[in-house]
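It would be a great kindness if you could assist me with a short task in structural biology. I am sending you one protein, given as its amino acid sequence and as whole-number tokens for its backbone shapes. I would ask you to consider whether the tokens describe a fold that such a sequence might reasonably adopt. The full record is reproduced below for your convenience.
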Amino acid sequence: MRPFRIFLLGFFAVLAFAFSATAQQDQINTVVGGGPNDMPALDADLNNPYQVTVDSSGNYYFAVPAQNRVFKVTSAGFLTVVAGNGIAGYSGDSVTGGASQAMLNTPQGVAIDGLGNIYISDTNNFVIRKVDTTNTITTVAGVQGSCQYDGDGSPATSYSLCYPNQLTVDSSNNLLIADSYNGLLRKLSGTTISTVAGKVPQTGPYGYCANGTLATQCNFNYVSAVGIDSTGDIFIMDWSQYVIYEISHTTNKVTTIAGTAGTGGFSGDGGAATSAEIYPYEWGQIAVNSAGTLVWLADTYNFRIRQINVGGHINTVAGDGGGGFSGDAGPATSATVYYPEGVGVDSADDLFISDTVNGRIREVVCDVTSVTCTVPAGETAQNIYTLAGNGSNTNATPVNGVPALGVTLYYPDGVYQDSSSNMFISDNANQYVRELLNSTGDVNLFAGTGTAGYNGDGGPATSAEI
């Protein structure tokens, strides 16, 4: 009889204990699970991705609040964890190379500076974290657990933020922070934090800010999104007023570029952006092209991505207004998206979308017809394609060849180890039995199709329902 060991588990990973005769403290290590990581991006399980941004090499990064992680996908389509071990909390600062094992709490924003540093809005910790080029994470702004406005100055870690949201970086590598619930736009320059837009002290009443007002005299309610162009003009959104403003870098005065103050809804496509209605609610984010002539909006509750010609009209560039998932490899405006929240653009104005409830990152290739753009082989300009995510919140696939710490398990409740030290895992809620090969360290599918049922006797185990 083959020797076996059975463990009953209530975690999302399989754990092993290492005992030492000389140590007084037992050590626990993860053997399998804790993904997705080190796998093709199209096969990863993503649970409501949020802000997405692109670096100069064509890699893109996105925050996934529900998984308490930030991911990177290379231009070749391979996904890895940048920061976060998947457990909500606050830990890991200054551990060399330890960003992927740090604890984050509902991260919503991510930005990359010109030096390769990655900034994260660790939203429910009320802080900004930085992952440097050695993959070491530190807190660079905000006070953990403190959601308020208590001033500006240095060091930035002595001054509070309140639910920081979208991030962007200017040409001097200063970080702009949508300090959402404080109704402010903050700037981190070195170790100093300052207020760029929004009135302090905050005296109210909060509401729409008229054109020509100094940005620091505006009583914004919720500054939830921010973008910047190459000249330094800043674009922000106050979602509670359903408007997007431009802040001139020369005058620091605001101008409304889209939306109807105080009215959320859907109207105005093809007409003046300032007469249109938008409905991003607090989650929809923005992206800006380098010239500052185009702004994209994740119009979340309208199930669309809309493009604003600054000073001109507004149009839908992705989504048909119906919530759901359809249309891959077809025209983006005929596809369905489901509560899209994040949007980013690269230097060719390819459009990246966090199709949030669909659990996917999608791309509209060569979105701007007036910009010279090379369409990848086999694709079509203005069509939409899935880049990352398999549409499941829990099930990491393919189930073959995934590194042990890259696979996602969902309520595993049994483990068997054979005489060759191969491990078989009952991945209960995913309806699989998986095998961890001792010889390679990879996880393969051993039985099940991912669908609960009973069939397949006499056939391949991987084609049977269990």
Q: What stands out?
A: Confidence is low (pLDDT under 50) at residues 1-12, 17-23. The CA atoms of residues 60 and 460 lie 39 Å apart.
